[in-house]
Write a structure and sequence with these properties.
674 residues, single chain
Length: 674
């Protein structure tokens, strides 16, 4: 059996086979092909040719119909009923593929979900149900459509699944809490007032949410009673009030409070005390008032008649009752002879009568504060007299001796003489008056002058009136003021004295001025010649002046020298000056120099010249901007010349050995050029 195998031309890679016993003569061939997976019909031509005559041929066209695909999409959920409190359900899908009615694959696929319902949302492959909180409702659902389009032939397959959420039901709790209270009805009568605290109720839902239930209440009528008047009675129950509470879901509860009337008793046995009759005061003045002064206590009192009642809890008032009570009064001073008495509270104070020969009288009045017509008075008198006690005076007393004026002498520092003097001193005196002293009953005494006092001032002569002294010049010796002579001076009178010391000094000697000579400037440089390669020169710079001191004595001292640093300046190219050092940079030209000048006010300026040697002959090169060529530069002394390099090669006047350098050639040219 012979087999011819060929590939289908649809790109599927499938092969088609033709089987024949020999492919010769008339025969029946077997054509076979695998299942056509494509969705379009495919065909293949086979050409058979005669070996002896190739123009004889037969064409066999083989066609294979396209396959038909069908699909079955099944949606599944991990949670087909979500709790009332909310949650999610994850949707998965299984795709079954049929080719020509035969199942060829079963695959887990990811569908695209859609759908809409109250309380539900879709995101990706998850369906979410929100918490139903406190909203009562029956079981609810959402129809979810799942689509898948990534099939073999691109068909879009869809399916649905229903997701439910649990019903949300309410559970009504029992009534809790709450309270009743009522204060007692007063003994004076009235209506009770019940204070009500509401009860509470909790409503629970399947969703897990809770809320407070609405609770209302009603009560029976309040209790009303009349006043107990003056009847004494204990606290008594007079009725009760019942409150009925009603919550949601038919929940009810009752609470009852007892109502009492308060005890009736005497609450104030001294109610409304009032004076109904005022008495007359009694008053007296105690001992202790004398001519020397002192104090005494005023005693005063008054009794009044007071009426009062009993007061009950009910507010009722009992009958009038009376009693005697101490009253209040006011005391005042109505007479104050010679104004030496004073009254503070109930205390009288009497100041000393001193040397006054007289009688002081005081009168005190007491008045009932409740009735000014009820009053009483009390009085007391005091007399002051005198006797002779003693006589004194007529005594001399002397003051301290006051020293006279001392004038010290001063001898000049240049020498000479001087005198110091002492003037008369003074002493004051007093003679006392003659005094008669009287003694009074008050304890005071009084002095009466029988002879007036007198006073005066006497001069006191010193024991030494003056001193003299001489001294020579202090010359050029520095000295402070010195003592040449001193003398103690005494002024003595009536066993009292004063003293002073008088001096003769010589004036201090010191330098008071100077005589100055002329300033002289010294300026030197080391070295004065600097090589062409550059270098420095150290400057020595200073100024001096002679100074002769002049003293207070007029003498002159030894001469001394005063120094100073003059200011420096420099002139000349290539040189700099700093910190007394002159610096010369490298010299590429001829010899050069600079001048340094030292100057100071009041002095003749000085100069020094520093020279730098000339630089060596040099040959350099420069490039002229823009032509890109190197041009030689010749420098000899202070003159610079330039030529083009080609002139060296073209100048027939320059002759040199074969191995002569370009510099030797340039020098020959330069000499010729110059």
């Amino acid at each position: 059996m012979s087999v011819i195998t060929n590939k289908w031309n649809d790109g599927s890679g499938d092969s088609i086979n033709i089987e024949s016993p020999s492919f010769q003569g008339n025969q029946t061939v077997k054509i076979s092909s695998p299942v056509q997976k494509g969705t379009s019909k495919r065909s293949m031509k086979f050409i058979g040719k005669c070996k002896k005559d190739s123009s004889k041929q037969v064409i066999l066209t083989v066609e294979q119909e396209a396959s038909t695909y069908t699909y079955d999409l099944t949606l599944n959920s991990d949670n087909t009923e979500i709790a009332a409190k909310g949650g999610t359900a994850t949707i998965t899908a299984v795709l079954k593929t049929y080719r020509n009615g035969n199942l060829v694959s079963t695959d887990n696929v990811t569908p695209v979900l859609s759908g809409s319902a109250t309380g539900f949302s879709i995101s990706g492959t998850k369906v979410t149900a929100s918490n139903r909180t406190t909203t009562i409702g029956s079981r609810r659902s959402i129809v979810v459509t799942g689509k898948y389009s990534n099939t073999f032939d691109g068909q879009t397959v869809s399916s649905t699944i229903t997701i439910y959420q649990e019903a949300n039901m309410a559970s009504y709790g029992a009534l809790e809490g709450g309270s009743l209270s009522a204060s007692d009805i007063p003994a004076s009568g009235g209506t009770s007032s019940t204070s009500i605290s509401n009860m509470s109720q909790t409503i629970s839902y399947t969703s897990g949410s809770t809320r407070a239930g609405t609770v209302t209440y009603s009560k029976t009528d309040e209790i009303t009673v009349s006043s107990l008047g003056t009847t004494v009675k204990a606290r008594t129950k007079v009725g009760q009030v019942t409150v009925t509470y009603t919550g949601e879901g038919g929940a009810t509860a009752n609470k009852t409070v007892n109502i009492y009337q308060a005890e009736n008793k005497v609450t104030n046995s001294n109610y409304n005390p009032r004076i109904t009759a005022y008495g007359t005061p009694t008053i007296s003045i105690g001992s202790g008032l004398t001519a020397a002064g002192g104090s005494a206590t005023v005693s005063a009192s008054v009794t009044n008649t007071e009426t009062y009642n009993a007061l009950y809890s009910s507010g009722a008032i009992g009958p009038n009752q009376t009693r005697s009570v101490g009253g209040s009064l006011s005391i005042s001073m109505t007479a104050n002879g010679n104004s030496r008495f004073s009254l503070s509270g109930n205390t009288i104070t009497h100041s000393s009568m001193g040397t006054n020969e007289t009688t002081d009288t005081i009168t005190i009045k007491a008045v009932n504060d409740g009735d000014s017509s009820k009053s009483a008075t009390a009085s007391k008198s005091i007399t002051n007299s005198k006797t002779v006690k003693s006589t004194s005076g007529g005594i001399y007393t002397y003051g301290d001796v006051i020293a006279g004026t001392v004038i010290n002498g001063i001898i000049p520092a240049s020498g000479g003489s001087a005198t110091a003097t002492a003037g008369n001193g003074t002493q004051s005196w007093n003679k006392s008056a003659t005094i008669t002293t009287y003694q009074y009953d008050s304890g005071s005494t009084k002095d009466v002058t029988t002879e007036n006092a007198s006073s005066g001032v006497d001069e006191v002569v010193p024991n030494v009136a003056y001193i003299e002294a001489t001294a020579s010049s202090k010359g050029a010796t520095v000295s402070s003021q010195t003592t040449v002579k001193s003398q103690i001076v005494i002024w003595l009178a009536n066993n009292k004295s004063a003293f002073r010391i008088m001096y003769i000094y010589q004036e201090a000697n010191k330098i008071v001025s100077y005589n100055y000579g002329e300033w002289k400037i010294v300026l030197r440089a080391n070295p004065t010649t600097i090589p062409a390669s550059g270098g420095t020169s150290q400057l020595t710079n200073g100024a001096i002046q002679d100074r002769i001191p002049v003293y207070t004595s007029g003498a002159t001292g030894s001469s001394t020298t005063v120094s100073s640093i003059p200011s420096l300046s420099i002139s000349g190219d290539g040189f700099t000056l700093a910190n007394n050092i002159v610096t010369a940079s490298k010299n590429n030209v001829g010899a050069r120099s600079c001048t340094v000048t030292a100057s100071r006010e009041g002095a003749v300026s000085q100069t020094v010249t520093i020279t730098q040697l000339a630089g060596p002959d040099g040959i350099g090169y420069m490039q002229i901007e823009g032509d890109g060529k190197s041009h030689p530069i010749f420098r000899v002394g202070n003159t610079t010349r330039s030529i083009e390099p080609t002139s060296v090669n073209q100048n027939s006047d320059i002759t040199s050995d074969k191995d002569s350098s370009i510099f030797a050639s340039l020098k020959q040219l330069l000499f010729k050029f110059l």
